[in-house]
Amino acid sequence: MLSYLQAPLLFGLIAAFVTTIGLIVVARSATWTERNASTFGLAAAGMLATLAFLHIIPEAFHLSQQAPIWLAAGFFGGLLLHNAVALLFPERPGRKPVNIALTPIIAIASHSFIDGIIYAVTFASSFESGVYASLGLILHEFPEGVIAFAIMKRAGVSNMKAFWIAFLAAAATTPAGALVSAPIMFMLEAEVLGAMFAMSAGLLLFVATGPLMAPLKETRPGRGLGAVGAGVAAALVIFLAPIHGAHNHDMDTVHDHDHGHAPGTDQPDFSQM
């Protein structure tokens, strides 16, 4: 069935393509990107924190009663991961610490993977819901590619390596999430999806307020706060876009649909799809 497997994968690939366009744009100006990587990081911090507060966390709390626990788990899990990487790869003279790039990249990769799962789940509700939800999520993809590349350049990674790491983390993970989850999407209950949303939000909040915000103390106040403000403004534009509102409605549909059961069975009723 098109709406069960091919469609989520197709839109996941479109999302990956949009992310790759963002990567190509910044990679063509790699020297300028590296010079302004800290500013990009601060803008990313503002954008990710705003999207987490306005979009991801409310969705998580709507879908799962255990969302606060998973939100805290994601945040403190990010803290543990960040420090574990620092212990495994100690800072060396002349080299930047690995954890300033690895923790944010893992956060972006996990969030993009969950985006792919959402494609599959919303297409399970209806083809129209899947299309609207996918269009809303694709709005995030271009800046994700830019952010991932800038993070790697800030860590001193070469242009080619930064491009491919950012591609794997921000682009390839979305169709991978759709492909992995499409065959089992009917088994994904709202509670499970809400828990994943909450963990993703917690991890993104740690990254936004920790590693990505770190350059603020060594950047001129006007430039640093201006970059954070630009990220917040970009997130608000994405959040207030009409398609994004349709995506929120579609997630409500999935939530209600997930609790509907066929008469006389314990399985969800997909007879109307």
TrEMBL record:
Stretches for region Disordered: 250-273
Pfam family, one: Zip
Chain intervals with Basic and acidic residues compositional bias: 250-261
InterPro entries assigned: ZIP (IPR003689)
Domain of life: Bacteria
Bilayer disposition of the protein: Multi-pass membrane protein
Keyword annotations from UniProtKB, A to Z: Membrane, Transmembrane, Transmembrane helix
Subcellular location: Membrane
Protein's UniProt keywords contain Kinase: no
Transmembrane segments: 6-27, 39-57, 69-89, 101-124, 130-151, 163-186, 192-213, 225-243
Transmembrane keyword on record: yes
Subcellular location, principal: membrane
PANTHER family named in the record: PROTEIN ZNTC-RELATED, ZINC/IRON TRANSPORTER
Official protein name in the record: ZIP family metal transporter
Organism encoding this protein: Henriciella marina
